[in-house]
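for the recovery benchmark. tokens below, seq after
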């Protein structure tokens, strides 16, 4: 619980704030992009409507079927050019002549059907459902098409190969406009040899006092814009109604002296060359489009932000723990010499053993020197490791290694150790003083842990564009679990071999920092007998 509380009050809110800021900026850019695409799609749809008017009406205004063709081609969908999924908006086109008489209108629910008996003159009938269906019935019809997608297929035959059109057909009872070949259906029934399926039975007032006609069709295709205009038929119906209200408002408020009026949302009222007025009502939700466009990006970036926040919190905790361990280890290393100093200082003050005064002073000086060395190493370890702090110069690495091991002849002799040097001539650019200190720490470590009467092997070689220095001693192997931690300050694989061995516990940490400052790497490795420490530097 404490960890969760720290996450939710620490790194996570910060990353979520950064994520929210990024999404606001991205949302603004996406809004501009989508708005441009939406306006382009609406303008393209208006141009298409004008083209269809010129094609089906202006040249042959006396042909009754042309109004049917024109209404059929006034598409009520928009945003076809936006890759968001389905069409996420609605348009209503209405054409009025100069006297204000309606010529054609976009249909929401419609269909086409081919009669059983073809007369050779006009084979297709148009099924207009908008005057028949109430808003609730429009929704029911749209859900019916969504649940039965075969109903939307153009020329989807009602019978299989074992049947004929006499066995299975569609029967529509409704008001027929023979001149325009438009049928307003009261009932639509699929009739099979063994059953009947009625998909529409309207009680609309449209049919009051009108003569009903029964017609039979061999194929039929039905469609509803509510299945394509939005995320749901209910939402699409709202789009459609809003588009209709805007179209009506545009026409009612359109001044006769204007050639065209276009609003910021794309709705327009335009006078054509022959005096016909083209009205376009548009409705779309730009916020919804932005959310649709960004939902995947928002989800993935949110998960990434949370993952980075958790990772950052983990790294921060590790860093804090390392600092605590470092401080605890430093305090522990200083505790013993300080205790020794205090004990001997009290003995001198009390004049407990005057004959040991010189001995006590030597111990105090030795412990002071030890603390001075420890503090110096701590300062060295805390020195900035940026490349800019290196005082680079040409360094003969072979000569440097030889200079480091030359003064160790006496200690090697005292432990009866044999030193084997195999140094290849290698030069590089680096900080001579820090490299010398790193090699000295590796040498001291090998001298400290090599078995008495054993061997220390030092090998310097060039491998490609890197120089590799290997310092081996035949002391005991290091447990695998401890190998990666040897570079940590004050860490000792064998706690029993602590300060009595003479080390501060900082030598290998200084080696690693020096090597990393030179863009190199270092690692320990167990040999069948003994341990080798490898330092690799770029040339």
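predicted aa per position
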């Amino acid at each position: 619980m404490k960890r969760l509380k720290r996450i939710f009050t620490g790194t996570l809110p910060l990353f979520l704030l950064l994520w929210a800021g990024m999404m606001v900026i991205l949302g603004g850019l996406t809004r501009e992009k989508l708005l441009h695409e939406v306006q382009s799609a609406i303008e393209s749809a208006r141009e298409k409507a004008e083209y269809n008017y010129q094609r089906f009406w202006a040249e042959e205004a006396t042909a009754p079927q042309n109004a049917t063709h024109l209404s059929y081609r006034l598409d009520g969908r928009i945003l076809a050019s936006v890759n968001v999924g389905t069409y996420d908006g609605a348009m209503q086109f209405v054409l009025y002549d100069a006297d204000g008489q309606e010529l054609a209108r976009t249909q929401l629910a419609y269909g086409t059907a081919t009669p059983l008996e073809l007369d050779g003159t006009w084979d297709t009938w148009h099924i207009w459902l908008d005057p028949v269906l109430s808003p609730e019935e429009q929704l029911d019809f749209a859900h019916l098409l969504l649940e039965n997608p075969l109903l939307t297929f153009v020329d989807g035959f009602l019978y299989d190969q074992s049947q004929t059109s006499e066995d299975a057909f569609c029967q529509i009872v409704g008001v027929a406009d023979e001149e325009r070949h438009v049928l307003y259906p009261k009932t639509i029934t699929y009739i099979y040899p063994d059953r009947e399926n009625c998909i529409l039975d309207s009680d609309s007032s449209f049919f009051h006092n009108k003569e009903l006609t029964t017609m039979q069709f061999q194929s039929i295709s039905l469609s509803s814009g509510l299945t394509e205009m939005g995320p749901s038929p209910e939402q699409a119906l709202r789009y459609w109604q809003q588009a209709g209200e805007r179209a009506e408002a545009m026409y009612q408020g359109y001044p006769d002296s204007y050639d065209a009026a276009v609003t910021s949302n794309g709705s327009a009222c335009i006078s054509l060359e022959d005096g016909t007025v083209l009205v376009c009502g548009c409705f779309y939700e730009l916020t919804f489009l932005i959310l649709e466009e960004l939902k995947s990006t928002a989800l993935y970036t949110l998960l990434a932000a949370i993952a980075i926040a958790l990772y950052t919190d983990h790294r921060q905790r590790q860093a804090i723990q390392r600092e605590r361990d470092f401080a605890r280890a430093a305090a522990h290393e200083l505790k013993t010499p300080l205790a020794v100093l205090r004990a001997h200082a009290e003995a001198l003050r009390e004049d407990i053993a005057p004959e040991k005064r010189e001995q006590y002073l030597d111990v105090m000086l030795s412990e002071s020197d030890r603390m001075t060395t420890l503090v110096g190493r701590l300062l060295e370890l805390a020195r900035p490791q940026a490349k800019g702090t290196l005082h680079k110069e040409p360094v003969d690495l072979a000569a440097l290694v030889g200079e480091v091991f030359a003064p160790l002849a006496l200690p090697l002799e005292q432990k009866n150790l044999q030193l084997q040097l195999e140094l290849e001539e290698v030069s590089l650019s680096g900080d001579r003083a820090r490299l010398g200190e790193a090699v000295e720490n590796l040498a001291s470590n090998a001298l400290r842990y090599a078995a008495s009467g054993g061997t220390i092997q030092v090998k310097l070689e060039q491998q490609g564009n890197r120089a590799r220095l290997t310092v081996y001693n035949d002391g005991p192997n290091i447990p695998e679990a401890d190998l990666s931690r040897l570079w940590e300050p004050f860490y000792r694989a064998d706690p029993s071999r602590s300060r009595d061995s003479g080390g501060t516990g900082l030598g290998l940490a200084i080696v690693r920092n020096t090597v990393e400052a030179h863009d190199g790497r270092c690692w320990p490795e167990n040999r069948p007998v003994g341990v080798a420490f490898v330092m690799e530097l770029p040339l």
